[in-house]
Amino acid sequence: MVGTVVAFIGAAYIIFNFVKLNTFFYQCLGVFTILYLLVMPIISLMILRQLDSVGDVTKPYAETLKNFATQKVRFIKFQKASVLTAYVLMVCVMLLCVKFFSKNLISDHKLFWICSFSFGYIFLYFFSKWVLGKYGKALRQAEELLREVE
Asked: How would DSSP label each residue in 75-135?
């Protein structure tokens, strides 16, 4: 939920500052980033909602477990795709941040790009591992709970 709010705030910021994107390249980058920041969290929330609604007590246990396994695989695939596309999003956000916040042309310095991409990728790598680990743990706990109900 927190990630969804952050993504929507980021999309709103880009929308309200879209006039600063004065070239076709930056406008395309802005539109792509806005769409990504709006669509991906909505899809994620929809998948989480489906995963949450799997535990229907009126259905047989085997069917509930099968539905949960199907939803679990779908959720994990989506999260892995999200992690991979987050690297593209990071590049887009860095380029947009330079356009929005750089007044002294810091983007002309090679050291800026080397450091920002290096630190960005390192941070994103560890953050992605942490997030996927948290989701994996939560899914394992839910699966154990379903097995205990049997």
From this structure: HHHHHHHHHHHHHHHHHHHHHHHHHHH-SS-GGG-HHHHHHHHHHHHHHHHHHHHHHHHHH
Please report which helix (H) or strand (E) contains residue 144, including its range: helix 110-149
Burial of 35 (0-12, 13-18, 19+ CB in 10 A): exposed
pLDDT digits (tens, 9 = 90+) for 60-73: 766 777 777 777 77
**CA pair distance 59, 32, nearest whole angstrom:** 42
Residue 103 has pLDDT above 70, yes or no: no
DSSP 57: T
Query: Which residues does 147 contact at the CB level (< 8 Å), separation at least 6?
Result: 65
Return the domain boundaries, the chain.
2-149
